[in-house]
Structure formats: C-alpha cells, structure tokens
C-alpha cells in the first residue's frame, strides 16, 4: 500500500466518524437538514479525494505515457 492511498481513509472517517457530530436536524444548509447536508458534502469530497489520489499516483502517470 502506498502512502498516497491513505488519503482514501479521510472520507471514510468523515462519514462514519463525523455522523456523531452531524446527528442533528438544525441548522438547515442549502435547504437540507444538517445530517443530510453532511452526507452530501462527503459524497462530493470523496470524488475530489479520489481525483487527487488518481492524479498523484505515479502508476497512473506511467499508463498515460505508454
């Protein structure tokens, strides 16, 4: 396992660990209850994190050059 792959743990901890913090309805964010906003935010952040991992992983650079 490469150290860059450890970035994938952050969204996992954000969803599972953070739900204890976000376990409430108020405040409403973008018209959504806070716990729903929390989950939607992490879905977006997972995509961003996976894009960063893909860009930084040297194995993907080797495949693109050949």
Please outline what is shown here.
The protein is mainly alpha-helical and 66 residues long. 62% of the residues lie in helices and 0% in strands.
Distance between the termini: 24 Å
User: Helices and strands: which structural class?
Assistant: mainly alpha
**How big is the Rg?**
16 Å
- Helix count, DSSP H or I runs of 4 or more residues: 3
Element-by-element helix/strand order: HHH
The rough form would be described as elongated
If you average the pLDDT, what whole number results?
Answer: 85
* Poorly predicted tracts of residues: none
Q: How large is the share of residues in beta strands?
A: under 5%
Helix content range? 55-70%
Task: Tell me about this structure.
With 66 residues, the protein is an all-alpha fold. The chain is built from three helices and no strands. The longest helix has 23 residues, at 34-56. The chain is elongated.
List the helices and strands and how they pair.
Elements lengths: L8 H10 L15 H23 L1 H8 L1
Helix pairs in contact: 1-2
Q: What labels would you give this structure?
A:
66 residues; mainly alpha; elongated
